[in-house]
Amino acid sequence: MKECIDLIKSSKKILIFTGAGISTNSGIPDFRSADGLYSFAEEKYKVPYPEAVFDIDFFNKNPLPFFKLSSDLLSKDVKPSITHKFIKRLEELGKLEVVATQNIDMLHEKCGNRKVLACHGSYGEATCCSCNKKYKFSDIKNSLIDGKVPYCSCKGVIKPDITFFGESLPVDFYNFVSNPPVIDLVIVMGTSLEVAPANQIPLMYAGKVPLIIINREKTVYDRYFDYSYLIDCDNFSKLLLDELPIYKTT
Ligand code: OAD
């Protein structure tokens, strides 16, 4: 672990890639763990298969389960985890090139990070499925919190700009992979790395710069990593927060 800590201390352009595992300690379930969303989605949200809550074809037929799930995600007063704070510290210290997240919970932004690439979009903006009118989170917030389907003035369903299965990722994602920034260290935290193409972001740096993965369990891609720690990401982040200097504003 010491070697890894020294690497983080000496790196200046770190790419962090995060998944749902960094928010489980904030009270948001991940997807594929034994107690993850996909273990209870069918029963709780009355969908024919777990991933249907994020499937665009299913949503176009029946958007309600997604909005019920959104209410569960957004109505709680969720606070950033120790891992979100560690990533924020890296940005304060000028060591973070970007945090690329698959998460839609907006906790990186809530924690104060600015250099965020939301690979699967977020609730920040929304679009009418019929007329493409753009909406802000605040425009549909009440429906989201109440678990109701928000409708446009044209009567179309307003869908948050979250990437569903069957949809393209945001243009920022494709800009990133077609013109990847110079990075000197990659740290992956709390993700099974099972979902493409988002998983290409860390994997495209394999063999070029050191890669670290912090996850509770193994992933099928661990062989590409130089350092792999099977631990709670908050335990790792706590260690690092104790080691890194505290950012001081002058
Ligand atoms: P997964 O549920 O697939 O993986 C989360 C990983 O985090 C698992 O390997 C857990 O073991 C691990 N984990 C959970 N809590 C942890 C903790 N406290 N410390 C360390 N590790 C922990 O979630 P993602 O990889 O984020 O897509 O899933 C990727 C995408 O699949 C999501 O963005 C979502 C989903 O379908 C869309 O919604 C489009």
3D structure, described in words:
It is a single chain. The chain is α/β, with parallel strands linked by helices and 250 residues long. The protein has helices spanning 2-10, 37-45, 56-61, 64-74, 82-92, 107-111, 137-146, 171-178, 200-203, 233-243; strands at residues 14-18, 96-101, 116-118, 121-128, 134-136, 158-162, 185-189, 211-214, 227-229. The strands form two sheets. The chain has a six-stranded parallel sheet with strand order 3-2-1-7-8-9, covered by helices on one side. A three-stranded antiparallel sheet has the order 5-4-6. The longest helix is centred in the first third of the chain and has 11 residues, at 64-74. The radius of gyration is 18 Å and the shape is globular. It starts with a helix and ends in a 7-residue tail after the last helix. Bound molecules: 2'-O-acetyl adenosine-5-diphosphoribose.
Order of helices and strands: HEHHHHEHEEEHEHEHEEH
Count of helical regions: 10
Instruction: Indicate the overall shape.
Output: globular
Ligand set:
2'-O-acetyl adenosine-5-diphosphoribose
Task: Give the number of DSSP strands.
Answer: 9
Radius of gyration: 18 Å
Q: Give the strand content.
A: 15-25%
Question: Main sheet: which strands, in order across?
Answer: 3-2-1-7-8-9
* SS-derived structural category: alpha/beta
Mean pLDDT: 95
Q: Tell me about the largest β-sheet.
A: 6 strands, parallel
Pick out the low-confidence regions. none
Distance between the termini: 32 Å
Helix content estimate: 25-40%
